[in-house]
TrEMBL record:
Coiled coil: none annotated. GO terms for molecular function: hydrolase activity. This is Isochorismatase-like domain-containing protein. It comes from Lichtheimia ramosa. The keyword Hydrolase applies.
């Protein structure tokens, strides 16, 4: 098993002061930072994904505008010089990018996916990783979302997160707790 850690869209717009703050973004990023440290120490690939909205999409959801502070990868998980950064314009990190080719060039067959947000970009990336033949893991503490309105009720972020984790675990990925991932209990 040759692993890579994929860090999806942990960008400033998802933090307090950003255009779309998520639920517990600092705690989520801190959990991911622990995984980044582990993967770096073990000489494993760490791939950072940065979502950049197209002009058309930015008009609908004004986040992650190219060259803005909000689109920058958050300082808690910033890539080092030479680490792979994949810029994307779609929900999946595999669509319209070189992510698959890059992972294959490094011999990666297993991905540990983290980031923001589980109901969109993390979820889509996990599904596509599976389609591309990768064994997938998602770290529970390393993903988040935000409360969302459905009709006349607000669905709590915790409920959305748990529902999507259960959904990906049904077939596409094994969901791990942070301690298990840090201790190689896959």
């Amino acid at each position: 098993m040759k692993q890579a850690l994929i860090v999806v869209d942990i960008q400033n717009d998802y933090f307090p002061g950003g255009n779309l703050p998520t639920d517990h973004p600092v705690e989520t990023a801190q959990a991911v930072a622990k995984l980044i440290t582990k993967f770096r120490q073990e000489g494993k690939q760490v791939v950072f994904v940065q979502h950049i909205m197209t002009e058309e999409h930015y008009k609908l959801i004004p986040i992650m505008q190219d060259n803005s502070k909000g689109a920058e990868i958050h300082e808690l998980v910033r890539p080092l010089a030479g680490e792979k950064v994949v810029r994307k314009h779609h929900v999946s990190a595999f669509v319209g990018t070189d992510l698959d080719a890059y992972l294959k060039s490094k011999g990666v067959d297993t991905v540990v996916v983290t980031g923001m947000m589980i109901h969109n970009c993390v979820n889509a990336t996990v599904y596509d990783a599976n389609v591309h033949g990768y064994k997938c893991f998602v770290v529970e503490e390393g993903v988040n979302t935000f409360p969302q309105k459905l009709h006349d009720q607000v669905i709590p972020a915790k409920q959305i997160k748990e529902s999507f984790l259960a959904g990906v675990q049904f077939y596409f990925a094994k969901v791990l707790r942070l301690d298990d991932a840090l201790n190689d209990n896959y």
